[in-house]
Design brief:
The complex is a heterodimer of chains A (158) and B (278). Chain A is of the alpha+beta class. Chain A folds into two domains: 8-78, Beta-grasp domain (Ubiquitin-like (UB roll), Roll); 85-153, [2Fe-2S]-binding domain (DNA polymerase, domain 1, Orthogonal Bundle), CATH 1.10.150.120. Helix content of chain A is 34%, strand content 11%. Chain A has helices at residues 26-33, 85-96, 106-120, 126-132, 143-153, and strands spanning 8-10, 13-15, 52-55, 58-61, 74-76. Chain A has a five-stranded mixed β-sheet with strand order 2-1-5-3-4, covered by helices on one side. The longest helix of chain A is centred in the last third of the chain and has 15 residues, at 106-120. Chain A is globular and about 45 Å long. Chain B is α+β, with helices and mostly antiparallel strands and 278 residues long. Chain B folds into three domains: 4-49, Uridine Diphospho-n-acetylenolpyruvylglucosamine Reductase, domain 2; 58-167, Uridine Diphospho-n-acetylenolpyruvylglucosamine Reductase, domain 3 (2-Layer Sandwich), CATH 3.30.465; 174-273, CO dehydrogenase flavoprotein, C-terminal domain (Enolase-like, domain 1, 2-Layer Sandwich), CATH 3.30.390.50. In chain B, the strands form four sheets. Chain B has a five-stranded antiparallel β-sheet. Chain B has a four-stranded antiparallel β-sheet with strand order 11-12-13-14, sandwiched between helices. A three-stranded parallel β-sheet of chain B has the order 1-3-2, with helices on one face. The N and C termini of chain B lie far apart (51 Å). The chains are: A alpha+beta (158), B alpha+beta (278). Chains A and B meet through strand 4 and helix 3 of A and strand 1 and helix 6 of B.
């Protein structure tokens, strides 16, 4: 029998894990147990980035993490990053460039961009930021506008 | 699928948990294992989490670099000084999935799953890496090449865990790969080269070949010079592209993979040995 891993903190709120099944993915906990539907299920196999959330500020794919296996660190979803200055800058850049078409991939793109900007710093450079975002797919292929938003945010590069 | 997850808080408890059920399997980042469990390619109802084990180190030691099996790949690639000492290894690590995937995926997981298309096995073979293991009989150390039995088959004893990997202090190296999309697919072929300290030739290893990533000694024989000539590089590339068993599958035909090996080996050598870029 598995020891109780302790509560997981999601968007600042403790989530008791004792009653969560061992095989539940973080994505399903967020969407179906906590009602946080901003995190999207795309491929459910780690290929599309739609389910990206932050774990202690680092991007992770919530479709490939077992909720009960995660360390007791804060999880931040698209719903939880609104007051963050980096997130506000990312939201403004995506809005200014209308960097979305159907919008399904947008939460993943925004969360991934926020996480990468914090991890790599504001001088990351356009080329590096683009490369690091390669794990996020837009099935509408609306990349041109997303790319313009990224260029607004990455200061250090060309 | 009923499935239980044990979270042992130490090495002995993890080994005991693995021995307690015949179908118990260790889980580290889970980025590969969870897919195989869901698809039924791996059958287990008992997962043993390695999250509580103290094996997430990436450090320089007296012998070289010591990288713990549960170190997330993202931490490995961002470790100060590692890219300067082992450029090809860090290139290979950065080629695995996306940044978000590498925040969870681990070095030990990649080794333990032993995929023929692994991007890390070829460069570790070229570096002649040692793998440190811990099991019911205690710790041991083995060459990766000896442990790697076949596709998805690493010769671990029952209850035995990968503790980490030991690399030489530094070695010129490069890893070149090709795939359809960079962060969302696995490599069609990967070519790793390295010249560990004291070696009298470049080591060449291939991934995306069957049954498992392998060294190509016949190609290495052509590459004794620190900066091989164009003719030597061409000869090595020709040998490497016919020396392994290439599969035709949905990612590429065998013929395309052979041609890729030829090109990628020349590119890798140009990067690592300072030769002209083909």
């Amino acid at each position: 029998m598995s020891a109780d891993p302790g509560p997981l903190e999601v968007n600042g709120r403790p989530v008791e894990r004792a009653s969560i099944p061992d095989d539940e993915r973080l994505l399903d906990t967020l969407r179906w147990r906590l009602g946080l539907k901003g995190t999207k299920e795309g491929c459910r196999s780690g290929d599309c980035g739609a389910c990206t959330v932050l774990l202690a500020g680092e991007t992770v794919l919530s479709c490939l993490a077992l909720t009960r296996d995660l360390p007791a660190l804060p999880v931040t979803t698209i719903e939880g990053i609104e007051e963050d200055p980096v997130a506000i800058a990312v939201r403004e850049a995506f809005t200014a460039e209308a960097a979305l078409q159907c919008g399904y991939c947008t939460p993943g793109f925004v969360v991934a961009t926020v996480g990468l900007l914090k991890e790599l710093g504001p001088d990351v450079g356009v080329d590096r930021l683009r490369e690091e975002l390669a794990g996020n797919l837009c099935r509408c292929t609306g990349y041109a506008a997303i790319d313009r938003a990224i260029r607004r945010l990455a200061r250090g590069g060309p | 699928m009923p499935l239980t997850l044990e979270r042992p808080d130490g090495v002995d408890a993890a080994i005991a948990a693995l021995l307690s059920a015949p179908d118990a399997v260790p889980i580290a980042g889970g980025t590969d294992l969870l897919l195989d469990l869901e698809a039924g390619r791996v059958r287990s109802e008992h997962l043993v989490s390695l999250a509580g084990l103290p094996w997430a180190r990436v450090e320089r030691t007296g012998e070289g670099w010591s990288i713990g099996s549960t170190a997330p790949l993202r931490r490995v690639e961002r470790s100060e000084g590692l890219a300067a000492d082992h450029p090809g290894f860090v290139e290979a690590v950065r080629s695995v999935g996306s940044a978000a995937l590498r925040h969870r995926a681990t070095l030990g997981g990649n080794l333990g799953r032993a995929s023929p298309a692994s991007d890390l096995l070829p460069i570790l073979l070229a570096l002649d890496a040692d793998v440190t293991l811990v099991g019911p009989a205690g710790p041991r150390r083995a060459k990766l090449d000896e442990l790697l039995r076949g596709s998805r088959d690493l010769a671990l004893g029952r209850g035995e865990l990968i503790e980490g990997v030991a690399l030489p202090p530094r070695a010129p190296s490069a890893y070149a790969w090709q795939r359809v999309r960079p962060a969302n697919d696995i490599s069609q072929v990967g070519v790793a080269i390295a010249r560990p300290p004291g070696a009298d030739r470049w080591a060449v290893a291939l991934g995306g070949v069957l049954p498992r990533p392998c060294r190509v000694p016949a190609a290495e024989e052509a590459l004794t010079a620190p900066t091989p000539s164009e003719e030597e590089v061409r000869r090595a590339a020709r040998i490497a592209s016919t020396a392994a068993r290439f599969a035709s599958d949905r990612r590429a035909t065998a013929e395309y993979r052979r041609r890729l090996v030829d090109v990628l080996l020349r590119r890798a050598l140009a990067r690592a040995s300072g030769g002209a870029r083909p």
